[in-house]
Amino acid sequence: MRTVRTVLGDVAPGELGGCNAHDHLFLASPRLPGQELRSVAAARAELAAFREGGGGTVVQWTPHGMGRRAGDLPSLSRETGVHLVAATGLHQDVHYDEETLAALRGRAADVFVTELTEGIGTSGVRAGLIKVAGGFHALDAHARWAMSAAAEAHHATGAPIAVHLELGTGALDVLDLLCGALEVPPHRVILGHLNRSPDLVVHREAAGAGCYLAFDGPSRAHHATDWRMPDAVRALADAGHGDQVLLGGDTTTAAARSVNGGPGMPHLLRRVAPRLAQAVGEELVRRVLTTNASRALAVEWR
């Protein structure tokens, strides 16, 4: 039976409700000094606001070694009534010190599998997807190593693989590696940040391969392309790929949270979804937030 692996256990896909398919409750990186997401109270408030707006599930794409705070996720889920999906995997190498990466050499796939099947550290919280990352229009040696480990973990567990595309680029190279050389089924791959590079031809080619396409934001850093997202989704829908679209918020700094005056998680349902409905209709937006997300995340776990 296909289920979605949440921090409180496996649930039926139909229980997710409206899904924020890419966001962060906790995040820490040397590339974002002073902008860490570490406050449990702020995470709770953000989830409560998302729930009040009609949200049902948040997928945290924070991977191994970036301050996931997995042990805090179950209580946050219980207290707010929001399903949470945690991630394993690895981001780009610039987000880690060499000691962290060295400790994973030769065993990354085993770590991913353990976090998917047994739990993250001593928390007992099992991850529900694998997150990896590409580079700007290219895949370096680290990306290829991490994706190879992710593919191995996928083949062992069935877990979906979510991919950070740097500035929205490199989608086809990622698919060539993951779905070509590494034989991951395309419907188990979620490409993130496609709104940051609104190349409709690449979007259509990626969708034609059979993967899911996540449009996540907005943010100050990538605002220049935010306004083109409805057109990009409409183009995919017109080409018959509306059932492969996902939406997320991707909150990566404390200032971006709604509790600190930013758009935060509620913005996805309060402003993004209604704006998108003007372009593609309310029914497709409903499917994007519910049916599409549940299919992308649901797995026959091995």
From TrEMBL:
PTM sites of type N6-carboxylysine: K131
Domain of life: Bacteria
Signal peptide: none
Pfam families xrefs: PTE
Keyword line: Hydrolase, Metal-binding
Family to which the UniProt record says this protein belongs: Belongs to the metallo-dependent hydrolases superfamily. Phosphotriesterase family.
Protein name per its UniProtKB record: Phosphotriesterase
Phylogenetic classification of the source organism: Bacteria, Bacillati, Actinomycetota, Actinomycetes, Kitasatosporales
